[in-house]
Amino acid sequence: MQNPSLEEPKTTKLSRRQQTVFEVFVVLGVVLLVKDVADRFNAIGAGSIAMWCGIFVAAYFMKKQGVNWKDRGLALPAGALSWVKSLGLALLTVVAVILFMALVVPLMSDLLGVHIPESSTDRFEFFLGQPMVFFIYLVVVIWIGAAVGEELLIRGFLLNSLIELFGDHKKGVTAAVVLHAGVFGMLHISQGVPGVISTGAVAVIFAVVYLLNGKKLFPLIIAHGLINSISITAYYLSDGKIT
Q1: Do 230 and 93 meet the contact criterion of CB atoms below 8 Å apart?
Q2: CA dist., res. 123 & res. 120, Å (int)
Q3: Which of 232, 220, 234, 202 is nearest to 105 (CA)?
Q4: 0.85 exceeded by the pTM?
Q5: How remote is the C-alpha of 78 from its chain's centroid?
């Protein structure tokens, strides 16, 4: 006769995997739904609004598991040395992403014969020539919405959920990194094929830094904010000519 206790771990594990899949689909579904509604109303920072709605739902699921954002790496560095290391890592990440975007993306676009649509930056035209509006957008949407929001949701929630789903081993982590990058890339579909591929590749870079640095989000938040700030500031100072 088979021992019932031997079957319990397998049943529990299967149930948890199903729950993880459900949570990921619900969170991403909320993000896409809110983004669609926000876009229909021409809301400024529609993507950031959608991200934070997803974060609230993700936080609810995490709380049920007894997990908080600090467990996923949301914490300030402790001590001067840790600050220096974190900021240095953030700057290295910025350099790596800028080099990739400057050298690899144009080559890839030429090889594929596709380019980022000019219309992808139309949503930024409202703050051109308005320094105060630009500054508010920079702080609220770029830093709070994108830098903090996307790192919490994409790395803090999605990547960790996928690692839990596929397994915390080499193959499982690799699959989680690739899939999470694919999702992040598709969230930037408005930038066309080059935008999807390039943001997906950036997600891989960020995931590698996150995992090799002990799952700390602070360096990635700083790097994310700096990268977006550089690009949006270049757009603003050039009166929309640099995209």
Answers
A1: no
A2: 7
A3: 202
A4: yes
A5: 24
Residue 14 lies in a domain: no
Q: Return the closest-CA partner of residue 92 out of 203, 227, 2, 215.
A: 227
Q: Do the domain assignments include residue 62? A: no
**200 near 108, Cβ under 8 Å?**
no
Write the pLDDT tens digit of every residue in 182-240: 999 999 888 888 889 899 999 999 999 999 999 999 999 999 999 999 999 999 999 98
Q: What CA–CA distance (Å, rounded) separates 234 from 124?
A: 12
Q: How many domains does the chain have?
A: 1
Q: How far apart are CA 8 and CA 130, in angstroms?
A: 62
DSSP state of 216: -
pLDDT at 7 over 70: no
Question: Would residue 90 count as lying in a domain?
Answer: yes
Residue 51: is it exposed, middle or buried by C-beta count within 10 angstroms (0-12/13-18/19+)? buried
Parent domain of 186: 70-237
Q: How far is CA 48 from CA 102, 126, 160, in A?
A: 25, 17, 21
Q: Residue 16: inside a domain, yes or no?
A: no
> Residue 197 is which amino acid?
I
Confidence of residue 105 (pLDDT cuts 50, 70, 90): confident
Cβ distance 66 to 40 under 8 Å? Answer: no
Alpha helices in the chain (DSSP H): 4-40, 46-64, 80-99, 105-112, 131-137, 149-150, 160-166, 170-186, 192-212, 218-237
pLDDT in tens, 20-70: 999 999 999 999 999 999 999 999 999 999 999 999 999 999 999 999 999
